[in-house]
Each structure stands twice: as C-alpha cells, then as structure tokens.
Amino acid sequence: MSTSAIIGMIVTLGIVLGGFVYFLSMAIRNESKKKD
Amino acid sequence: MSQTDQFSSRWGIILASLGMAIGAGNLWRFPRLAGQYGGTFIILWILFLFIWSIPLLLAEFSIGKKFKKGVIGSYAQLAGKKYTWMGFFITICTLGIAFYYSIVTAWALRYLGFSVGNLFSEQSLSEKLTANPEYLNQFWNTISNGNWITVGLYILNVLLGVFVLSKGIQKGLEKANRILIPSLFVLLLIIAAIALNMDNGVLGLEYMFSINWQDFSNSRIWIEALTQSAWSTGAGWGLMMTISSYSRKNEEVTLNTFISAFGNNTASLIAGMAILPAVFALAPSYEGAVSYLQSGNQALTFTIIPKLFSTFQGGGILSVVFFTALFLAAFSSLLPMIELFARNLNDLGLTRKQTMTRVVIFFIIFGFPSAYSLDIFTNQDWVWGVGLIVTGLFILFAVVKSGAKEFKEKLVDEDSDFKISTQYFVICMSGNIVLALFLIYWWLSQGYSEFPWFNADGNWNFFDVYSNASILTQWIGVMIIGFFMNKFLYNQFAAKK
Description:
The structure holds 2 protein chains of 2 kinds. Chain A is mostly helical. Chain A is about 90% helix and about 0% strand. Chain A is built from 1 helix and no strands. Chain A has one helix spanning about 5-35. The longest helix of chain A has about 35 residues, at about 5-35. The relative contact order of chain A is 0.10. By secondary structure, chain B is mainly α. Chain B is built from 22 helices and no strands. In chain B, helix 3 (about 30-65) crosses helix 20 (about 420-445), helix 8 (about 150-165) packs antiparallel against helix 17 (about 350-370) and helix 17 crosses helix 18.
C-alpha cells in the first residue's frame, strides 16, 4: 500500500471509528454516572 | 403517552436510530462510490457528515422530542399552520421511498435463498456460470421484473415489519433492533476479515483510501458525497423525527445524534473495507475490478458479488453471510419507514391495530408497481431519492423560520450531555438552505435523460424513468395536494391533542 493510502486510512478510521467509539463511551460513562 | 409508547432507555433509541440509518445503501451504494472515487470521495463524505447530516439530524431529533407527533403534526407545530403541506411533502417523499425500498428486502431474501440453494446444489454456481455465463444476469432479470415470488416476498416483509411494530415501541422496534444491529455489525466484520485476508485484498484498501487531489475540482464527487451522507444517515427524511417522538421526557439529543451518525459511517466504512478488497482479490485483473466497481448499484450487488464469491472455496458461505447482512440492514431501515407512516396515522386517533391494517393496505397497493417493474422501481428511486434534498430544505426552512439560535439553545441543548457551538449550528442551517437550492438546480440542470423535459414528439416527458419532467410532475403534484389540503391536514394531524 502507498504511504498516502495508509495515511488516508488511518485518518479516516481515526475520525469515523474513533468518533463512534468516543461518543459511545461518553454515553456509557454518563449513563453509569446517572445510575450512581 | 404511556410508558410502553416510548423507548425504555437511551440504548433503545440509539439502536433504533442506528437501525434507521444503517441500511442497504451502506452495503450497496457506499462501496461503489468509494470504489469509484477513492479517498477524495471519503474526505468529502466525512466533511458533509459535519456540515449537512449532523445539523439536520439534530434538528429532526429535537423537533420529534419536543412535539411528540408524527412528521406532519410536529412540522406544522414548528413551522406554523400555513406550512403544514411541507410536512405532508416530507411524509409522502419518505413513504415514496419506503414503498420501493421494501422491494430491496425481497431481493435480498431471494438472493439469500439463491445462495443457500447453491450451497446444497449438486452443481456449484461456478459450474453453472461456466455452462452459462449469463446465468446470474438471467436470474436478476427474472426476479426484478414481473416476478410473483418477489411480489410475495415483498408482501411478506411488509407483514413481518408490521407484525414487529404492532407490538409497540419497546416490545417491537426496540427489541428487534437489539438483535438486528449487533448481528449486522458482526456479519460485516466477518466479511471484512475474510476479504482482507485474500490475496490482493489490500489493493482494494489502497484504491479506497488513495487521494487524487485533482478530483477535488470534480463537482460530481462533491454532489455524490453530500447525497450519500444525507441518504445514508437518514438526514432530512423525517425518520429521526419519528423515532424521537417516542423518546423519554429528558432524552439526550446531541450525543445520541452523534452516535447514530458516526455509527452509520462506521458501518459504511466496514462494508467498503469488506467489498472493495473482495472485488480486487477475486476480479481477473486490476482493470476488471475497477470496471466492476463502476457498474452501478444493482449490478455490483446482485450479479457481480455472487459471481466473484463463486470463484473461491468457501465463497458460497460468504455469499450467504453477505445477503443475510443485506437483508438485516434493509429490514432495520424499513421498520422506521413503516413507523413514520404509522405515527402519522396514530395522530388521527386510530388504534395501533387500525393503523397497522391501513399500513399493510397502503404498502401493498403503492409498493406493488415497483415490486413488479424494475423501471417503476428505478423511477421512484430517482424521484423520491432526489426529493430528499427538498425535504431537507423544508426542515432547514422550519428551523430558520422559528429562529435557529433559539431553536438550538432551547430544543437541542436542553437535555444534552455535551453542546456543540451555536454559531456552527446556525451557520449550517442557513448555509445549507443555499446548498440545497443549488443542489436541486444542479440535479435538474444535469438532465440525466436524453429528453429531460419534452420527448422527441414534443410532449411532456413524464413517462421517462430519469426525466426532470417525471420528477417535477410528481413533486409538484404532491405539493399541490398538500397545499389544498393544508387546513384539513393541520386540523387532523397537528391541532388534535
């Protein structure tokens, strides 16, 4: 794979998948705080 | 509203939003576009997630949560009595999509049956294709035109959807999505893992993520990226408005919307990372793979993928997994489309049972033409697919008219765990109105038909699948009906408590 494609893949996955995991974990954290 | 008419928890509404957003488009449209335009398309697709889709979804979520009615009633209460017909147009546009979209679930089931049949057949699909290279094309032509089994499966899927929804929000929609969405993600990950381990599979990734900077000057990629983001996330459909009308009183808005939007894009990326590597690994040559990717949605999904999967051992099982995933994705999106219709009927004071009976009748009558004729399916896909830009425009109009700043501060931020910038929201709302108007002009100016307005005989070209004449006649027809019924619609759908 070319360097630019690897960078493109890392950045894309970082934003999209990273964003999904980040927001999901924030929701999980907030829900558990509410239960406490 | 009784406790059972709302989601039981935050996870219930998040899964329903994900089910709404993740649909057949993630599996059959995104991989084709990502393959066709590569990394340039992906950058723009992410950009429009932030500029167009997320602000619109935030607006829809807030409207549904605030007014707790169907799309017509909620829209009228925000925009004002005079504009009820716009809510009617949004409803009809999404229903127009729902009527033909339910056929995709029938096709997915037919191919699932076809894949399972091939697993147990004495002659493998590969042998059948050697004996008759047109075998898959013939199968596709048979099932997509004038086929009563497809019509039967379409009706069965509608009945299944109605059966699930008739159990209510918690026991129906919420419970179904708890099974559908995790299963779908698992199946997509299985396909991606297998495809990425194939020889040359990595070529697909390279093709998908390579950026050609000159492509940024190609206006078509910008439009494709925006429409894919809007259609895939469900922004502007009224579906998020419907789902959030069943939200709990203090339901969070911003974070839930972000999870839905990013979850949808994650599913698209996984689907792209499954299909592109498979196409590059199994196509006879690099050029062959590229030409497959540019062959159109239906061809890629229903003729090329089964053909490619037939070329390696274990491909039959992968085909079963793929069409199961396609069915689950399509069905999870069909449920909120049916619910959108049901929610509006509920506002008329009908019971759930009465509502569902009417839903079945309407779907069978109005979906039948698309189930029976691929030309009608394609026309409806074109007319109401492009119509989503108009529905998005109407939602933007309602928010701006009511005061975008106040809307954001009072409705979006009210119960949100985290808040986005008000300036960003206001700029997106106003700026997107200009963008939507430009897009409508652009689509119409492209003239996809040879005769966009008048046919060779000089007559209004209504019966052409791709003509502007067909699009505008159907849009304006619905708007005129809505406009003349405006008072009636307001009294029936918005004024009643």
